[in-house]
């Protein structure tokens, strides 16, 4: 569907989209003057546009620590993902990465495009890292050490069981949760969250990415690692790539629904983690990716398109999430809405239907029991367009401008 059609179908996306664009322009202009910090922030904007915006809203000291943490993790990821690096070269780099971040002379060229620039100029990230407070440095070092070792462990390992899947997701995303909780605590704004809940926050995001990216990962040349656990997909097909073939569509969707049901297991922990946050900017930073994740799962569930192309939340809906997420009531509202959407898509004949429904009902109960579900705008799309007051006001403004322009051009008589 073309952009104009999408906008016509969702006219109430226009206002949040415009707001997001203005905020993004503003954020891009706020690059610090010091060359190493300027590099870090412009890199952050390049590798993650909407996420960079939310990082930008954090208090200054914490914002710098999160920015560096994010870039260090991206660099570690770039090494892990580069299939052209032989294993015997890759392993020592991954396992010693926590030392490299202290060394402004260290350099290893790999990756492509923006990631190659990140690796080539990594000394600028190290320079900025060395200016962070000691407690921020120690948190980043500890997580980098554990994640590098975990990535090295999984280089030649297939994801066989659901336990392997949870372990892999712990290394690449759960540890990010543990690290962020430490950074929030170090900033003095939050209590230290439990490792268990921090881990769940990362697992929920990462499992959603793994589900959404099936086709991209399976079609990658040279072949990349696949993270769908054999214990799940072997119930439906003989080989993981069989899921993408049309003749296996029914099995593929059942397998997909099984993966979504597995990811839903973490939702209640995530809600508990977010409910305990106190600082509004830290809260938004954590809540926006979580709402995007449940929205993406709702879009992917029972959707054969996951095996045919890219399934992503439309930009307008992302803009709405960024615009509307201010407090816990907004999170409960969003999780409730997307659980309703998910529930409406569950087919009674699906092998996991009972398990899926009971997870969704548990999520809805948590949201309902919060007592704050009233008085909110829904995220669930109606089939016919809603020409709401915002659109009418916009139309009125556009017509007024045209009318004023035509009037000004009329010759005076
Ligand atoms: C993240 C996470 C993230 C944010 C907030 C709290 C978290 C708590 C635990 C674990 C991770 C948490 O969020 C980003 C979101 C992101 O990058 N979004 C992309 C969109 C997309 O589709 O990928 C964007 O461009 O906006 C995230 O996905 N990860 C991440 C990485 C580092 C940090 Cl510091 C925080 C990656 C991952 C693998 C899920 C942990």
UniProtKB/TrEMBL annotation:
It is an enzyme of class 2 (transferase). It comes from the Eukaryota. One of its GO terms (cellular component) is endoplasmic reticulum membrane. Keywords: Membrane, Transferase, Transmembrane, Transmembrane helix. One of its GO terms (biological process) is farnesyl diphosphate metabolic process. Its cofactor is Mg(2+). Its EC number is 2.5.1.21. Pathway: Terpene metabolism; lanosterol biosynthesis; lanosterol from farnesyl diphosphate: step 1/3. Belongs to the phytoene/squalene synthase family. Catalyzes the condensation of 2 farnesyl pyrophosphate (FPP) moieties to form squalene. This is Squalene synthase.
């Amino acid at each position: 569907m073309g952009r104009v059609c999408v906008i016509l179908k969702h006219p109430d996306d226009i206002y949040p989209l415009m707001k997001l664009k203005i905020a993004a322009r503003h954020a891009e202009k706020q690059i610090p003057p010091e060359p190493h910090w300027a590099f870090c922030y412009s890199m952050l904007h390049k590798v993650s546009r909407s996420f960079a915006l939310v990082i930008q809203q954090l208090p200054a000291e914490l914002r710098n620590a999160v920015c560096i943490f994010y870039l260090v993790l991206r660099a570690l990821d770039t090494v892990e993902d580069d299939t052209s690096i032989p294993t015997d070269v890759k392993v020592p780099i991954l396992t010693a990465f926590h030392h490299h971040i202290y060394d402004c002379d260290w350099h290893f060229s790999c990756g492509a495009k923006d990631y190659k620039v990140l690796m080539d100029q990594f000394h600028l990230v190290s320079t900025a890292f060395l200016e962070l407070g000691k407690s921020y440095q120690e948190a980043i070092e500890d997580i980098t050490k554990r994640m590098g070792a975990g990535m090295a462990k999984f280089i030649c390992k297939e994801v066989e069981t659901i336990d392997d899947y949870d372990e892999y997701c712990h290394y690449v995303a759960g540890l990010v949760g543990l690290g962020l909780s430490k950074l929030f605590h170090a900033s003095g704004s939050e209590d230290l969250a439990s490792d268990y809940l921090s881990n769940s926050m990362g697992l929920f995001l990462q499992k959603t990415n793994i589900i959404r990216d099936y086709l991209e990962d399976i079609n990658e040349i040279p072949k990349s690692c696949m993270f769908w656990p054999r214990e799940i997909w072997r119930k439906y097909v003989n080989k993981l790539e069989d899921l993408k073939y049309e003749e296996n569509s029914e099995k593929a969707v059942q397998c997909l629904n099984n993966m979504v049901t597995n990811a839903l297991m973490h939702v209640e922990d995530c809600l508990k983690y977010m409910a305990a946050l106190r600082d509004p900017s830290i809260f938004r930073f954590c809540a926006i990716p979580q709402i995007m994740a449940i929205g993406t799962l709702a879009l992917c569930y029972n959707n054969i398109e996951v095996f045919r192309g890219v399934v992503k939340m439309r930009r307008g809906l992302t803009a709405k999430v960024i615009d509307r997420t201010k407090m816990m009531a907004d999170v409960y509202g969003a999780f409730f809405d997307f659980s309703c959407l998910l529930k409406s898509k569950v087919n009674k004949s699906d092998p996991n239907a009972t398990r899926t429904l009971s997870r969704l009902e548990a999520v809805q109960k948590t949201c309902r029991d919060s007592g704050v579900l009233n008085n909110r705008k829904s995220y669930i799309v109606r089939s016919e367009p809603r020409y709401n007051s915002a659109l009418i006001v916009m139309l009125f403004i556009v017509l007024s401008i045209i009318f004023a322009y035509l009037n000004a051009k009329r010759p005076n008589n």
